[in-house]
Design goal:
The protein has about 375 residues and is α/β, with parallel strands linked by helices. It has 15 helices and 5 strands. It starts with a helix and ends with a helix. Belongs to the ABC-2 integral membrane protein family.
C-alpha cells in the first residue's frame, strides 16, 4: 500500500511540474467558462442604429431619446434621406434604421395612430429579428405611457423592411461563417505541423544545409497548401450557391482575391505556430484548441460582438476570421466593392505580413 501511495504521490508531482498539464487541467476550463459565459447570449446590447426623422417634432425626439437611453441601442448617426440607408448598411457599422413618418404628431392627433418603419440589415437573421422585437417593445412601452393621459388611446405602428435577406434565410449566415471556420482551421492546422514534422523526422538538417534562406523555406511550406485551400474555398462557394441558393451580389474576382488573401493569412498563422512548437502534437493542440473557440465565438459568426463585454470586443480585433466574415458578407450579400471593404482588407494584409515576419524571426532563432 505504501508503494502505491508513493507511486500516486510521484504522479502528482509530475503533473504539478508539467506546466502544460496544469494549463490543460485548470487554465482551459476557466478560460472556456469565462468565454462562454460572457460571449454566448441571445440578447443584443449597444447595437448601432441610424435615425431618419422626417417629422422632427418633440414627440419623435422623445421616442428617439428613449431608444438611445436603453442599453440595447446606440444611435450612430442621424440621416436626412432614404437614399443614404443602403450606403450605410454596406459599410456594415449600422444594423438598423428607424424611419419616423412625416407629420408624426399630426397623425397621432387626427388619426390616433402613427407609423415607424424599422429597416434592418438581415444578413444576420437572428440579430434582425431581435432588433425588431426590441424596438417594438420600446415603442409599446412608450405608447402605454402616453395612453395613461390620453383618451382615446394612441397607437404607434411598426412596419418592418429587411435588406439583403428578406426571407430571413439562416443559410446566408451559415455559408460565410462555415467557409471562414473551415479555411481558418484547416489551413492553419495543415501548416502548423509542417516544420515540426521536419524536426521529428530528423530532416531539419537538410533544410539547415540547404541554400534556401528562411523566407524561401517558409514560402515553400505555404505555397502548396494555398492551392489545396483554394479548392476547399471553391467547393464551399459552389455548394453554397447551387445547393443552398447563396447569392453573390458583388464581384466574383474580388471574392476570389479576398478568399486567397484570407487563406494566406491562415497559412501564415499556421507556419508561425509551427515555428513555435517542438512537436506535431503540440502544434496540433495549439491549432485546434487555440484557434477553434476564438474563431467560432469571437468572429461574429454566431454571436453578435456588440453584445459582448468590451475586453472581448477588443480581443476580437486580433482574430483574422472576424474581418474575413465582414468582407465575405459584404461582397456576397451586399454587393460591396473594394471602396467599402478596403479597411478590412488592409488589416488582413497587415496580419499576414506580421505572421510571416515573426515566423522568419523565430525560424532564424531555431536555426542558430
Amino acid at each position: 500500500m505504501k508503494r502505491f501511495i508513493g507511486f500516486v504521490t510521484k504522479e502528482f508531482y509530475h503533473i504539478f511540474r508539467d506546466k502544460r498539464s496544469m494549463f490543460i487541467l485548470f487554465g482551459m476550463p476557466i478560460a472556456q467558462i469565462m468565454l462562454f459565459g460572457f460571449a454566448i447570449t441571445n440578447e443584443i446590447n449597444n447595437v448601432n442604429i441610424a435615425i431618419l426623422d422626417k417629422s422632427k417634432d418633440t414627440k419623435t425626439q422623445k421616442i428617439i431619446n428613449k431608444i438611445s437611453a436603453s442599453k440595447y441601442f446606440y444611435i450612430e448617426q442621424e440621416i436626412s434621406s432614404e437614399y443614404q440607408i443602403e450606403s450605410i448598411f454596406k459599410k456594415g457599422k449600422v444594423k438598423a434604421v428607424l424611419v419616423f413618418e412625416n407629420h408624426f404628431v399630426k397623425n397621432l392627433q387626427t388619426q390616433k395612430q402613427a407609423k415607424v418603419q424599422v429597416i434592418t440589415d438581415a444578413t444576420d437573421p437572428n440579430i434582425a429579428n431581435t432588433i425588431t422585437n426590441y424596438v417594438n417593445a420600446i415603442l409599446q412601452n412608450h405608447t402605454q405611457e402616453i395612453n395613461n393621459t390620453n383618451q382615446p388611446a394612441y397607437q404607434i405602428q411598426t412596419q418592418t423592411q429587411l435588406y439583403y435577406n428578406p426571407e430571413l434565410k439562416s443559410v446566408f449566415t451559415f455559408v460565410p461563417g462555415v467557409m471562414t471556420v473551415i479555411l481558418m482551421l484547416v489551413s492553419a492546422m495543415m501548416t502548423s505541423i509542417s516544420i515540426t514534422r521536419e524536426k521529428e523526422l530528423g530532416t531539419m538538417e537538410v533544410l539547415l544545409v540547404s541554400p534556401l534562406n528562411p523566407l524561401q523555406v517558409i514560402l515553400g511550406k505555404v505555397f502548396p497548401y494555398i492551392f489545396l485551400s483554394i479548392i476547399n474555398a471553391t467547393v464551399i462557394v459552389v455548394l453554397g450557391v447551387f445547393v443552398f441558393g447563396m447569392p453573390i451580389e458583388g464581384s466574383i474576382l474580388l471574392l476570389a482575391f479576398e478568399s486567397i488573401l484570407f487563406i494566406i493569412t491562415a497559412l501564415s498563422l499556421g507556419i508561425l505556430i509551427s515555428t513555435l512548437s517542438n512537436s506535431q502534437q503540440t502544434a496540433m493542440m495549439i491549432s485546434l484548441m487555440g484557434l477553434m473557440l476564438p474563431v467560432i465565438i469571437l468572429s461574429g459568426f454566431i454571436f453578435p460582438l456588440s453584445s459582448m463585454p468590451l475586453p472581448l470586443q477588443v480581443i476580437s480585433n486580433i482574430i483574422p476570421a472576424k474581418w474575413f466574415i465582414i468582407i465575405i458578407k459584404a461582397i456576397m450579400l451586399k454587393g460591396a466593392s473594394i471602396e467599402i471593404i478596403w479597411k478590412e482588407t488592409l488589416i488582413l494584409i497587415g496580419m499576414t505580413l506580421f505572421f510571416i515576419v515573426l515566423s522568419i524571426k523565430k525560424y532564424k532563432i531555431r536555426l542558430e
